[in-house]
Amino acid sequence: MQTTRNHKQEKTSLGHIRVLDLTRVLAGPWCAQNLADLGAEVIKVERPGAGDDTRSWGPPYLQDQDGNNTTEAAYYLAANRGKRAITVDISTPQGQEIIRELAKQSDVVLENYKVGQLKKYGLDYESLKQIKPDLIYCSITGFGQDGPYAHRAGYDFIVQGMGGFMSLTGERDDLPGGGPQKAGVAIADLMTGMYASIAVLAALNYRDRTGEGQYIDMALLDTQVAMLANMNTNYLTSGKTPKRWGNAHQNIVPYQTFATSDGHIIVAAGNDGQYRKFVQAGGCPELADDERFASNPQRVKHRDTLVPILADMVKRKSKKEWISELENAGVPCGPINTLDEVFNDPQVIAREMCVDLPHPTAGKVTLVGSPMKLSATPIVYDTAPPLLGQDTSAVLREILQYDDDQIENLSKNGII
């Protein structure tokens, strides 16, 4: 590899890798952030004057040291740490030439433009592999590069519906509030970013063994279908379409959420012994001896009778009391935490799932840490999500050897 950030090379997994990141919003940036966390030099390319759409997807916005809002939305901060940011107008011949030169000096190109959009700029895989034969080129779209939906725009919410997730998620149709429900975060985007990360790493490994680059075609819909896991195979094996069960389990009772006096908990009583301990902790041991509820098959059969009784029982104590008593009794349980409770949880703190990074306008920014814990090549937390275009001049000088006059001319003409 050519020039890269030397301080990342020694004790990182990907310090020898350069990634040219032409993506925006979430799926692509999430993939690129994973690679940056693992030590890769990631160069984020954005539109001059505007940048990634998520920079303005607020409030909330990061605040500066005087308490004023910056131009960095929290949404943008979530998926862009560890990157260098440059601005290039790729609709211009000069901008296209900059991207080609950078691609020639890179190992990986990530993009999430509409199908065929980069071809008109000469920045598609077929064009770039002519100048960089061993290039890894990953495209992320809503529906993939082929098929009848290929030219549709892909949105996470729509894909959650199309891919079957929402048919499985939400309260039962026969209960109040029943109906399809999306996830609280953009799971199709996030999981596509994760799968894309794996695919890029696999392609890099293959390139290192054979010298051959390749094209990676990632689609949100493909990912959403794939991640339904056992629910897919339940259907494919039985031919029966699964239904929504909300926070309940179709085969185990009680295996669901309950409201306490001050919050909610999850109780996952997987066998009759755990169920008995649960109702004993609630002061209702007779519920374990009632023949309607004594065994799991009977509890499933009489679910609609038992669950309201258990719900009344659970409301008599606080969340903290229930968690303490059930953990001591050996009944699987857990709280449903709000995010303030999550980030004050001693386990989350011990696992260092919050990191503070220096920021040029805010002084520091607090971000969520990576869940990847590697003993020999730990995650790299070196730079905050960059300001728009903050590294443009440095990247052009260091990698492409542009001089001051060239950079000034490009800036004057709105190319960068």
UniProtKB/TrEMBL annotation:
It holds the Pfam family CoA_transf_3. One of its GO terms (molecular function) is CoA-transferase activity. Keywords: Transferase. InterPro entries: CoA-transferase_III_domain (IPR050483), CoA-Trfase_fam_III (IPR003673), CoA-Trfase_III_dom3_sf (IPR044855), CoA-Trfase_III_dom_1_sf (IPR023606). This is CoA transferase. It comes from Undibacterium nitidum.
